[in-house]
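Task: encode each sequence below as C-alpha cells.

Item 1
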Amino acid sequence: MEFVLDLVIDRSLIKEGLKGIIWTIFFHRLFGPITPGTEEFLDTTYPIANDMTELNSLIEDKVNHLAKKAENLESVESNIENNERVFVEHMTVRFYDKKVTKSKKKIGWFGQGRSSETDDINPWETWVIKVKLLPVPEAKKDSRSDKKESSLMEENQNITSASFRSNLKKIIDISDAHKDHIPPITSSESSPFPYSIDTNIDDSGSSPYEQESWGKYIKKILD
C-alpha cells in the first residue's frame, strides 16, 4: 500500500520537521520491543525510539541530504500571492517483506536434485512525503520591509506548525485504519521488516517546482 503526505514547511525548519514526520511513521511500524521516547517540534510532541541509534542516524543523514539540497536552491519569491513556483522534493519510506524461496533443480544423469534458496524482497508499505518549501523572506534594510519580513516569518512558522500537526494526525489515522496488509511478524527484533529511506525518487525528469498557487496549499492546511 502507498500513502502520500504533503508537508509544507519553512526552509529553516526542514531538518527537525521532516525528522519528526519520519520518526512518527517508524514508531507505528516498529512491532518489536523498543524504548519509547518523545521529542518536540514547534510545541508539538512526536514519538521516537530511544534505543534505535542506527535508525536515528539514517534518518538524520537523509534529512540533512535533502536540507542541503534545499539550501542550494535559488531563493523563492517572498510574495506569496504572486509566487507560482512551489519547490517540491520527495522522500520515501518503504517497509519490505523478506521471504525465502526454496527451489530444487535437477542435475546429472539420474535427475538428482540440488536445493537452493533465494531471498524474495517486496515492499508491503510505502510512504511518500512531498516536501513543499515556503517562500523565503527577502532581507531589506528599511523598517517597512523589516516588518513585512517579520510578519512573513511568523506566518511561515504558523503554516509549518499546522502542516506538521496535520501530517502527524494523518499518519496515526492511517496506521490505525490499515493493518490487514501487514505481513506475519516472525521476528522479535525491534524492526522485524527491512526498511529504506530514499530521496530524489522522482525520476520522471520533471521540474522540482509545481506550477501551483501557494494559496491552494495554505488554504488546505489552515481549513
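Item 2
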Amino acid sequence: MADLEEGRGRKWLQQASKEEVLDPSPQAAPAHSQSPSSHNKDDKIEILEWTPNDARNPYNWSSSRKWITAALTLFGTFVLTLNGTGITIAADEISEEFHIIDTSTFSNTYWMVFSWNMGGAFFVLFLPLLEDFGVKRPYMLFYTLFFCMVIPQALAQNYATLIVTRIISGGCTAVLANTIASAIPDLWESDSARSVPVGLYILLYVVGNTAGPVVFSPVMQYIGNWRWIFYIQLIVYGALAPVYLFFLPETRGHTILGNEAKRIRKESGRPVYTVQQRDALPIKERLLKSVARPLYLLFTEPVLLASTVWSAFALGLVFAFTQSTEQVFQELYGWTAYQCGYVQAAVVIGELLGWPITLYGTNLYLKSARRNREDPGRPIPEARLYVSVFGSFVGITSGMFVYAWTSYPFLPWYAPAIGLAMVGFGIQIVVCVIADYVVDLYAASDFAGSAIAAVVVGEQIVAAALPLAEASMYTNLGFQWASSLLGFIALLLSLIPLVFIWQGRNLRERSPFMKSNGMKSDDKVTVEKL
C-alpha cells in the first residue's frame, strides 16, 4: 500500500499488492537492471526492472544490513510513541499552572492525549500520497515537523498551545510509525522471514504507547517540572535526527529503481520508466482512494468492522489505563501521580510476555497450509486467530475482572497490578493478530492497504475517546463495576475470533472485496519446510 499498504499503518502490509502497483518480488521485479527491458505495453516507453542479483535491491541486502536498518526504525517506533502518554503523569501540575479545572466526573487535562490520537487518525489517511517519495524523504520531513512541534510543547505558556501542537505531533507520529513499518516488508519478502521483525514492530508500537508514564515518572519524582518531560524528549529526538539523516537508507525498492530511471532519462534522453512511474494515478484519484476507500470498506464489510472494533478496544485500554490507574491507586493506596505511572509497568510486562505467543501463533498459521483443503499449500487465514482466543479471554477479559475485584484497600497493590499485566498480555496478542488477519483477508483482492488503514483509524479514534469516559465511569460506578463493565465488553468482543474461526470461509466468500482463499496467488507455502 502506499506507505500504509506496505507497512502497518501498523505495520506489516507488504501484502497489500495492487493498490500500490508495487511488486518487488524476485520474479517480477528483482534487483536493479542497468539496461531497461523492452517488455512494455507502450513501445515508446522502456520499462526498467530489477535484475535478480542486484545488490541495491533491499531484498538482496545482507542479513546484517537488514537488521541494522530494522533496528534503527524499530527504536524510532518506540521513542516516538512515548510522546503520546508521557505527559499524563503531569496532569495535576499542568492543571495548576494553566488553571485547568477538572470536575469529579471529567478530567480536562486528558484533552492533551485526545488531541494527540485524533491527529493520528486524520493524518494516517493521507499516507498513500507519500508512496512515490519512498521511505527516507517522508520520514525526515515528518520527523523534522514532529521535532518542531515538541518545542512549543516544552515552552507552552497556555493550555491551547499544548492541545494544538499535540494534534500535529500525534499526526506526525502516526505517519512516522507507519512509514517505519513499511521498511520491514521492503527488506524481507516471505511471511516466515519477516515474522520476527513485524512482531517486534507491533510490540514496540504498543509498548511505546504504554510506557510513557513509566519512562517519565522519574522526571516528576526527582525534578518535579513537567516541562522536563519534553526537554528530555527534545534531547533524545535531536540526538537521533543525524542518525536517521545519515544512516537510514532508502528501503523502498521501486523508489530506488525510479531514481535510477530518472538518472537514465536525464543522461541519455531515453524514455525509461519503472512500472510504478508509468502506471501512477493522478494525485486527485490517489487522494480519493486513500481517504474514501478505507472508510467505505469499514462501513460495508462486517468482518473488517468487527475486527476494527475488537482491535481498537484493546489498544484503547492502553490509554484508558493512563487515567484509571491514577484514580484507583491514589484513592486506594494514597500514591502520588508518578507512583501511579510506575505501576503501569505491569501492563508493559504483560505486553512483553504476549510477544512470544504471537510468534507461536505465526507458526500455527504457517503450518495450517498442510490441512488447507480449500486452497492446498496456502495457510488458512483464520489460523491467525487461534492464539487470539486465549489472549482475548484469558488476557483482556479475565485481566479486567482481576483488576476490578482486587481494587480494594485491604488487598496489596500488586493484586490489581497482576490484572493490569494480564490485560497487557492480551492487548499485545489481539492487536498483532488483527493486523495480520486483515492483511491476509484482503491481500488477494488488492484492498489490504485500505483495510488496514481503516483499522488504524479506528484504533486512533477509540484510543482518543475511550479514556474520556473513564473518570465518569470510575466515579459513578465505582472501581469494581467500572472495570467490570470494560470486562463484559471485552467478553463480548472475545466472541469475534470464535465466529471468524467457525464461519471464516463463508464470510470471505460473501465479501465482494475478498477472495475466499484470503491470500495472493503467489503466496503458497512449501509444506515440507514447515
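Check on item 2: The chain has a mean pLDDT of 85. The beta strands are 31-32, 46-47, 50-51, 272-273.
End of task.
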